[in-house]
Amino acid sequence: MSATLLMQTLDKLVKLHESLHEVAKKKTEIIKVGDMEALQQIMKDEQAHIMSIQKLEEARMTISKRIVVNVPDPSVMDCVKHLDSEAAANIAGIANQLKEIIMDLKETNSLNQQLLQQSMQFVNISLNLFKPTQKSMNYGKPSGNNIRTNTIGKQGNSILNIKA
């Protein structure tokens, strides 16, 4: 009974992780295009998937604790050791499938993170191009060794020496 429940829960986890992986692939395309509204929507979809996965993981832990009583937080492999060979083989296969999907999901999320970082760098560079490099381009007191033309007859940095 518990082995069947564990298999069903793991199957649901596999399906949810596959669905989350598809959402992550869509997210990659949305990041490439730069559609912020679609990105916000896809992130909401991701959050819904994550909430469902968390609930299923809690259910899996409850079932695992029923199968393996003497371990506080039993893993799927701990459960496999306590089941008959047929159920153990099925559960191990599903667990390996889940592991592969999670690895693919990690790769896709890593790609998305890199794309977002590159987008942020591009935005920062673009913003820096629009910032003026000096505080004042035309108005205010001249600073440094600017040419003084308003002091007639005085020694200064004038182009013309009008002392003649």
Question: What would a concise description of this structure say?
Answer:
By secondary structure, the protein is an all-alpha fold. The chain contains four helices and no strands. It is elongated.
Structural class: mainly alpha
Largest sheet: none
Q: Say how many strands there are.
A: 0
Give the overall average pLDDT.
Answer: 85
As a whole number of angstroms, the C-alpha radius of gyration is: 33 Å
Structure description:
The chain has helices at residues 2-33, 36-67, 76-81, 85-130. By secondary structure, it is mostly helical. The mean pLDDT is 85.
Compile the SSE list and pairings.
Elements: H1 2-33, H2 36-67, H3 76-81, H4 85-130
Helix pairs in contact: 1-2, 1-4
Can you tag this structure with a few keywords?
mainly alpha; 164 residues
